[in-house]
């Protein structure tokens, strides 16, 4: 934001920016390989093919955030940026209804009032949207989490529009990543973002892939394709997969890696009408 905005920042806004964020301690221990919960400043990437439970996990996290403390939630606000236009409000309401002991309409409305939903249809619009949201984070101390589903949505479009220049192809995403890092750092947020598995390793490929066992002793072939600015800011990378054996009671699996501390956890989950179940 401009220097003028900084000069106009009130004491209330400064307090919201620096001290107002609630703890995320009970968000979801099964997802994190170190403390068991994200801390403010963490950037968590959900990575995997389509149909492996990434969006359902986001609904699970949103529900945990917006539910009242009396209902087992954190009672904090969430900013959800939907770039795939896949967000299903009815699905979220169904999950909330199952988790509230008394799913009265007024209680559901209060929960949904803690959710801010934004749609973007291009990387340029995403960048402009991020700039426009800074004041929202500044003035809402209970807005602790930003979700971006997905940050890889415009990869092929940007690659096509950029021609032969890698710098032009990655320009918008690089700017988005840099500004996301600024928001996360200055406003003490936790950022969750999804990426699709779109790069498949061929049997005779000599291109660089990252066998994840080098990073967290998990036997996963991971091929990063987004810009380095994004790769470098990720603190946790969680890999989603679905077991071929459909008879399994928990067909979805995750491998959660802390990219800095080289720690890893694995677990399985199922998806029911009431949401994710570990």
Could you walk me through the main structural features you see in this protein, from its secondary elements to its overall organization?
It is globular and about 55 Å long. The model is unreliable at 202-209 and 211-215 (pLDDT under 50). The protein has a nine-stranded mixed sheet. It has ten helices and eleven strands. The chain has 278 residues and is α/β, with parallel strands linked by helices. β10 and β11 (275-277) form a beta hairpin. The longest helix has 21 residues, at 166-186.
Quick recap:
The protein has about 280 residues and is α/β, with parallel strands linked by helices. It is about 35% helix and about 20% strand.
What global shape is seen?
Answer: globular
Structure summary, number of beta strands: 11
What structural category characterises the helix and strand content? alpha/beta
Classify the helix fraction into a percent range. Answer: 25-40%
Helix tally? 10
Instruction: Name the helix and strand elements from N-terminus to C-terminus, one letter apiece.
Output: HHEHEHHEHEHHEEHEHEEEE
Q: Rg to the nearest angstrom?
A: 19 Å
Query: How do the strands of the widest beta sheet line up side by side?
Result: 3-2-4-5-1-8-9-10-11
Mean pLDDT: 85
* Main β sheet profile: 9 strands, mixed
| pLDDT < 50 stretches | 202-209, 211-215
Separation of termini? 41 Å
What proportion strand? 15-25%
């Amino acid at each position: 934001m401009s220097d003028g905005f900084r000069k106009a920042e009130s004491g209330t806004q400064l307090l919201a920016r620096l001290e107002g964020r609630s703890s995320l301690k009970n968000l979801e221990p099964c997802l994190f390989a170190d403390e068991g919960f994200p801390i403010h400043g963490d950037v968590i990437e959900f990575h995997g093919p389509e149909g492996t439970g990434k969006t359902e996990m986001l609904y699970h996290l949103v529900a945990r955030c917006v539910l009242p403390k009396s209902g087992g939630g954190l009672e904090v606000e969430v900013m959800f940026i939907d770039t795939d236009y896949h967000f299903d409000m009815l699905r979220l309401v169904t999950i909330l209804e199952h988790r509230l002991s008394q799913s009265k309409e007024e209680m559901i409305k209060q929960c949904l009032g803690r959710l801010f939903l934004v749609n973007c249809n291009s990387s340029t619009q995403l960048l402009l949207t991020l700039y426009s949201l800074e004041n929202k984070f500044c003035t809402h101390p209970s807005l602790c989490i930003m979700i971006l589903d997905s940050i890889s949505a415009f990869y092929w479009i940007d690659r096509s529009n950029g021609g032969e220049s890698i710098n032009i192809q990655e320009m918008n995403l690089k700017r988005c990543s840099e500004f996301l890092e600024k928001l996360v750092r200055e406003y003490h947020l936790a950022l969750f973002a999804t990426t699709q598995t779109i790069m498949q390793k061929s049997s005779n490929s000599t291109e660089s892939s990252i066998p994840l066992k080098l990073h967290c002793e998990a036997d996963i072939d991971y091929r990063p394709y987004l810009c380095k600015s994004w790769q470098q800011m990720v603190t946790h990378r969680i890999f989603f997969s679905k077991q071929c054996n459909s008879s399994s009671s928990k067909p979805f699996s995750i491998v959660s890696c802390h990219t800095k501390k080289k720690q890893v956890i694995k677990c399985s989950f199922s998806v029911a009408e009431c949401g994710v179940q570990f």
